[in-house]
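Continuing the series of single-chain predictions for the mutant panel. This is the parent chain; the variants come on the following pages.
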Amino acid sequence: MTSSLPFSVAPLEATFGAVITGLKLTDLQAHEFSALYDQWLKYALLVFPGQHLSNDEQIAFAKRFGALEFELAALSNVKDDGSLRTDDDDDMVKILKGNMGWHCDSTYMPVQAKGAVFTAHVVPSKGGETGWADTRAAYRDLDEGTRDRIASLSAYHSLYYSQKKFGQTKEKDSEYFGYGFFNQDPPLRPLVKIHPETGQPALTIGRHAYGIPGISEAESENLLQDLVDFACQPPRVYHHHWTAGDAVIWDNRCLMHQARPWDMNEPRVMYHSRIAGDPENEFAASA
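Parent structure:
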């Protein structure tokens, strides 16, 4: 335990992330939260084992980091009647499988999300991990020529684009609750952004990004994929093996994330609270 902190911090074996113990998230004092927020900005991902937050407690914790983009969404293959979603044509299965691609949340919205709180309620016997990738370290580790090449480039971001690969389109009514499927022009976001609180540059890439203006479609696709492939290499990645009761919070402004596959004949029930970005520094105009 760091002597000046009211909790224990164990850094992960990666360029980011730490496990936090010695805190009860439902009973954070102001000085504890202030110290925790500083550690969040430093490590970008904080893991809290054994918290067992209720939905209301999760929402209350997330709200301490800012206004919420939405309070709670279940990411689960369990239907309301208790049966399992296993059909690839199931709209929620398409979303779950789409989330297995590396991405940042809400880059397809006018205002990108600040971060997210995620909790595990039911976990499969194997698989179903969540991975994160450090886009700060990725930018830092790029060669100078690539940094110069991407310095002035931007890409469009669209959930329609990323989910079309799984058969979800504007024209099809979806059982999915519809977040991100709006009649709007896709935001255009720079490939390199400056974190508004730390001042560190980071890449804004992932599965929602496409169509870099000024270069060909093929060149754009290859460049974006090359950047993702580079970013998602050790020591810039961490995959968390969930235990029911775990909670995490991550900084969406400098981390990508992905779900990992599992046998959908087993239930997996996770809850996601999304922290809204500041429109002053997370807004992206279209074109």
